[in-house]
C-alpha cells in the first residue's frame, strides 16, 4: 500500500531514461530541425516539465484570481508578494520556528518508538499478537477525532501539539516497520543461518538492512502524517506558528497572506519529503547510487 | 500466537485491550477514560437520538459525494496519465505533491471559499481521496504486461478494443487498491473537515461532547467512527480479493 | 555403470558407502498432513559429488535443507563426521538457488560474509574472499554490487562465499537453474574443475538429467509423494576426456536415457 506513490515515481524515472536511450540512437542519423531539437530537449529534461507544470498551475491561479472566481481568491502574484513580504519582515520565519518544534519533536519520538515497536512486532509473534491489531485499527481510523482530547490532559502548549503529531505519525511508522521486517527476503535469513549467524547478527546484518527501504518509506509517510497532525493541532488546539498566520490573516480578510502561508507549508512538506528520498537513495543505499 | 498449544486469533488481543480499558475505567484513574461498558451503553443510547442520526446522514452524504467525485475524476485522470505522456508530465508533479501534502492546512481556504457547511467537507473528502486514486490507476495502466497488448494486436484488436478489453481490466486490481486507500483517506478527510468546520455533523457532536466533558458519548462516537472505517476497509479488501483471484495469475 | 551399495530395509532402499562423511538416517518430513519425505537412508562419500535428482515435488530440496540444518526433520537424524547435527554448522556450506546475495553489499563483502559472521578480522577475510573471487573467475569485480552482475556471475559469488568458509561439505540447491543454457554448461565445467581442485564433498540438487549425469560421481533418484529413494546410479564417466567428448560419449547418453525412462512415469 505505501509503495504505490513511490512505485509510480520510479516508473516515471524509468520512462525518462528510456527516452534518453532512444534519443541517443536517433541523434546519430541526421541534424535535428529546430522543432525536433525542442522536442528532444523537452524529452530529455525533467526540469522542463517541472517548470511547465508549475507555470500551467500558476497561470491558471493568476487567471482565476483576475476573474475573480471568489472575493476570497487572491491572484497568484498577490500571494507571491505576500509571501515575500512575510519572509522579509521575519513573521514567516518565526512562524516556522514555532511550527517545526512540535513537528520535529513528534516525528523524532514517532520514528524512534515506531521503528522500535514495528521491528519488535516483526520479530516476535507475541508482540505482534499484542500490538498489531491495535495499530491496524489506529492506522485505518480517523485519529484526528482524538486531537480535542489531548487538550484536556496536556493543555494547549507544546506537549499537546507534539502529541497530536505523534498520534497521526506513529501508527503509520509502526505498521510500515512491521511489514518491512515481515517481508524480509527469507532466503537471506536462511543464508545467515547456514553460516551460523547468531540471532543478533541476523537482525543487525540481514533483517534491518534488508528492511531499510520499507522502513524509510514508512518514515516518509509518517512525516507526511506528522505535517497533517501539526497543522490540525495549530488550527484546532490554539493558533501558533503557521496555523496562527492562516487563522489571523483569514480573520482580517488578508487573503494573499493566508494563501501564501498555506502554500508555504505544503511546499515545505513536499520539499522535506523529496529531500529525504534524495538522501535515502544517494547516501544510504550505495547499490543504487551508480545507476 | 499460541498459548498452551492453542492458537489464539490475533483480533482476540483487541478484546484483551478492551478488558484492560474496562479495568482502567473502573479504577476511575482519569476522567478521560470511562469504563468500556458505559461507553458502549452510551453508544446504544446515542444511536437512537435524532441528533446522531442527523449528523450521520450529513457525514455520509459528504463522504459519499466526495468519494464519488474522487473516483469519477481520479480514475480517468490516472488512466490518461498512464497513457498520454504530456498529461502525465504536466499533472505528475502536482499529483505526487498533493498525495502526501498536509491537506489539513487547505481546509481553512476551503472554508472561506465554500462556506462553513457541507460543501467544504465534501471538497475535503474529495481532496483527501483523489490523489492516491489517480496514482494507483496510473500505475495500474502503466504496468499492463506488454505481451498482453501484443497479443491483442496479433489478433487484430483495434486500439479501442485493446484499451477497453485489455488495459482497463488488467489495471483493475491497482485501480481498486487505489480506491480502497482512497476510502480510508476519505474517512480521515470527512472527520478532519468536520472537526475544523465544527458546526456540522460529527464535528459538531465532537465539539459538543468535548466542551461538556461528556466522555462516554465522545468515546462512543469515536468507536463508531473507528468501526465504520475498519468495516469499510475490510469490505473493499474482500471485494479486491475476488478481483485478485484472476489477477494473481499475472 | 554400476549399482553399488544398495540394500533394502523395511521395503525402502538404503544407500551405504565406505568413508561416509554425511549419513542420513531414516529421515522423514511432514508438512501438516502432507508427507514430503519418507524413510530416507543415505550415505554420502567423502570427496565425491553426489546428486539428488527427481521431478519437482520429490522433496530433494527439503532433504538438502534438512542436511543443512535449515529445516528440522520430523523423524530420523543426520550425522556429519559421525556427529549428530541439530542445526547449521561450520562443516557445511550452502549455495542457494536464488543466490541469496545481500543487495547492499559488494561482491567482496558478500563472499566474506560467512567469515564476517565468525568474527574474522576484515584484512584476513578480504584476503580469503579475494582468493575465491579469483578462483570463480570474478577477479576485478570485487567492488561491484550484485545488481551490476549477470545471473551467472551472481551465482559465482554464491559459490565463492560457500568456498570461503572452508567447509567439508558443500550443499548446492539447484544452483544453475536461474542461469541461461550457455552459462550453465560453462558452470558445470567450472564446477568439475573446482571439485577436482578443492577436494571437498559436494551434495548437489538438480532436476536436469543431463546436468546430473555430467557432473556426478553418484546420482540418487528420488520419487515423489512422498519423497523416497527410487534408484542409485554411478555414471562412471571418464572425466579426463574433453567436455565435448563427454557429452557425445555413449555411456553418458545411455545413462541419461536410462534415467529418463525411470522418470518419465512422473511426467504429465
UniProtKB/TrEMBL annotation, chain B:
The places in or outside the cell where this protein is found are:
Cell membrane
- GO process annotations (BP): transmembrane transport
Q: Where is the ABC transmembrane type-1 domain?
A: 56-236
Membrane-crossing residue ranges in chain numbering: 12-37, 57-81, 93-114, 120-141, 162-183, 218-236
One Gene Ontology cellular component term attached to this UniProt record is: plasma membrane
State where it is primarily located: membrane
Is the Phosphoprotein keyword given for this protein? Answer: no
Keyword match Transmembrane: yes
* CDD domains, alphabetized: TM_PBP2
The record's keywords, sorted A to Z, are: Cell membrane, Membrane, Transmembrane, Transmembrane helix, Transport
Q: What membrane topology does the UniProt entry give?
A: Multi-pass membrane protein
Q: Which PROSITE patterns match?
A: ABC_TM1
Entry's InterPro entries? MetI-like, MetI-like_sf
- Name the family: Belongs to the binding-protein-dependent transport system permease family.
Q: What is this protein called?
A: ABC transporter permease subunit
Annotated source species: Rhizobium deserti
UniProtKB/TrEMBL annotation, chain C:
- InterPro entries from the UniProt entry: AAA+_ATPase, ABC_transporter-like_ATP-bd, ABC_transporter-like_CS, ABC_transporter_ATP-bind, P-loop_NTPase
Which PANTHER family does the record cross-reference, listed alphabetically?
A: ALIPHATIC SULFONATES IMPORT ATP-BINDING PROTEIN SSUB, TAURINE IMPORT ATP-BINDING PROTEIN-RELATED
Family per similarity comment: Belongs to the ABC transporter superfamily.
**Source organism of this protein record:** Rhizobium deserti
Q: Which UniProt keywords apply?
A: ATP-binding, Nucleotide-binding, Transport
Q: Which residues form the ABC transporter domain?
A: 22-249
GO molecular function per UniProt: ATP binding; ATP hydrolysis activity
Name of this protein? ABC transporter ATP-binding protein
Does ATP-binding show up as a keyword for this record? Answer: yes
